[in-house]
Amino acid sequence: MKVLVTGANGYLGLAIAAALDRHGHEVHGMARTEAGRRTVAAAGIFAVAGDLDSPEELQQLAVGYDAVVETANADHSASAHALVAALSGTDKTLIRTSGTGVYSDLAGGNPSAVVHTEDAPFEPLEPIRPRYELDDLVLNATGLRGIVIRPSLVYGYGGSQQLPVMLRAALRHGFSGFLGAGLNVYGNVYLEDQAEVYALALELAEAGSAYNVAADEMPFVQIASLIGSLADVPTRPFADDAEAAKVWGSWVHGLGSNTRVDSAKAVAELGWLPVGPSLEQELTSGSYKKIWGDAPLIIESTATSAAR
Description:
With 308 residues, the protein is an alpha/beta fold. 38% of the residues lie in helices and 18% in strands. The protein is built from twelve helices and twelve strands. The protein has helices at 11-22, 34-42, 55-62, 77-87, 129-139, 162-173, 191-204, 220-231, 241-248, 264-270, 279-284, 287-292; strands spanning 2-6, 26-31, 46-49, 67-70, 93-97, 145-151, 153-155, 176-178, 185-190, 209-213, 216-219, 235-237. The protein has a seven-stranded parallel sheet, with helices on both faces. A three-stranded mixed sheet has the order 7-9-11. Residues 301-308 have low confidence and may be disordered.
């Protein structure tokens, strides 16, 4: 197929574009900036200009492709609606990247026994509802093959959304923190294993299919401890929500949530088989150790409550 990947210069988008290319598709990677397009082209992917904030131009661009894989921003409503409008009635494919964060329970570090499946009834919490509604928009669209993929914590090659936030916080504040007891559980998946799900879904998934993706899971206190060891700083609970917010910023509630999912559907329907190294291996002896292991410890002057 001729496939457009939005956000193709991003951590996940570039890996997806590469996986689709390996599967023999003609892949075009959309990026907003010239620097982003150079990143796409350097990976051997044909780079095209596009901007989520220009929905009419995005619609015009999308109609020239057999499939669009949306990776740029899971919460960007205008672009999601534009892509659905562009492809409705064409029977073409739209794959939306959401995230297992839609299942966030704001547990504050407390554990949960709930493991989410794609087809079970679910009511998201209000802060997450707009993202979940965009998932439904794609899944229920008529005249196109709408697919939603929900990655968990994606790791590998020293990157991720969550892990660099935690690593930088540990290096800046001199400790690796967690909320409450830190017993909230996060699903996780290696970057290339996650990218493979997109290639398989493009080729095999039925219209209206959603896939939750995690190869493993880990209590957050263990993730924080591995981060602490890597940064060579102590690991401890935050004294209170205010300290957590100071250290983690807008991530504070998400990193205290449970995001447990069952990926049996991706295995059964797509034949997905994760083969990458574990999160623990990557943090102790893999890419994060190589990239972050010698990063300097820079303690900020802001109080952290270490003396409380």
